[in-house]
Amino acid sequence: MKANKIIETLKNYEAGKPIELVVREFGIAPEDVVKLASNENPKGTNPAVLKAIIDSAHKAHLYPDDSMYALKEALAKRYAVEPNEIIIGAGSDQVLDFIARAFLNEQSSVLMSQVTFAMYEIYAKQLGAKIIRTPSYQHRVDEFIEAYQLHHPKIVYICTPNNPTGDAISKADVLKIIEAVDEETLVVVDGAYMEYASAKDDRFSIAPKDLMIYPNVIYLGTFSKAYALGGMRIGYGIAPHALIQTLSKVRPPFNITTLSMVAAVEALKDQDFVHDSIALHSQEIERYEAFARDHGINYIDSYTNFITYILRDGQSSTQIANRLLEKGVIIRDLASYGMNALRITVGTPIQNDIFFRKYLEVAH
Ligand SMILES: *Cc1c(COP(=O)(O)O)cnc(C)c1O
């Protein structure tokens, strides 16, 4: 049976491989599998959040509060905006879906960097929009402005810090791109890893509030990374009220579960957990940098919770990723992004020890 023509031509998003797959295919015990492929927080679920989830589990028979009052209030307070300037999604992924459906059609084009978050392309293509990419994998202001002037895309996606490369663009440069586009173009600033970038270098720190003077800009954030709630599926968009109102028209009712909302509200209260996560990360990523230097591997300076190793000619990222997989270490091969590179989520000290050891066993 044939689906819509546009859908027939789409590729599926390749999610990080689950632990269960490695257990099944290679007979490795689950406790011996090290998953460093999906940029999850290695500290695990915050115990205070876990308790809040359990305490609310008895409300499972009731629909969630569709106004999402408590979560919007908490986010509004944290980011110094109004609750009506916030939209909540099942992950910021879902907000990206709302954005595409609200603004794109078969006459539209969208602009993004050469190597960036795969879902921008997937959602845009579902609507029949044309994809335009800048030449560099980094976000370069001049390349964005030149491509904008040439194509007048409906949406410009800025992913900072960028997944899957880990680099970031300064706030000053983001503002230059925003200033260069007219108000009929929506600029999406995806800050999924912003907590890590802000901790590393103030020049790369962008707060939603910084962008609120622009009617055509939306900031996206998520609870999946620094807040360690990837499994609960909560993200948000922050933008002027009129833009939020437009996006709300395509939001299905009850798109977030009661337990997800409780978890997010609780997680926001515990900023110490976020600080500790970033402190652990900062310490461990230095080991990845030292390991790369010691073994002649190039890496991209990272503003995220992962690091991207660029392999030299003669090495194959796909081969190394597959060999690691057979040894129970799941990382991300970037060959499908056109890069001979590996993206490794920085794990716990023990997970990282295992990665270093197995990497040396498989890479020649
Ligand atoms: C992880 C990620 C997201 C969103 O993740 P959700 O789990 O859907 O909130 C968005 N953008 C980028 C660049 C990401 O890496």
Structural summary, described in words:
- This protein has helices spanning 5-8, 19-26, 47-56, 69-79, 92-103, 118-126, 141-151, 171-180, 194-200, 241-248, 258-269, 271-294, 317-326, 349-362; strands spanning 34-35, 86-89, 109-112, 130-133, 155-159, 186-190, 217-222, 235-238, 298-300, 306-310, 329-330, 332-333, 341-345.
- It folds into two domains: 5-45 and 272-363, Alpha-Beta Complex (Aspartate Aminotransferase, domain 1), CATH 3.90.1150; 47-270, Type I PLP-dependent aspartate aminotransferase-like (Major domain) (Aspartate Aminotransferase, domain 2, 3-Layer(aba) Sandwich).
- Helix 6 (118-126) links the parallel strand 3 and strand 4.
- The chain has a seven-stranded mixed sheet with strand order 2-8-7-6-5-3-4, sandwiched between helices. A four-stranded antiparallel sheet has the order 9-10-13-12, with helices on one face.
- The longest helix is centred in the C-terminal third of the chain and has 24 residues, at 271-294.
- The chain has 364 residues and is α/β, with parallel strands linked by helices.
- Bound molecules: pyridoxal-5'-phosphate.
- Pyridoxal-5'-phosphate binds next to helix 5.
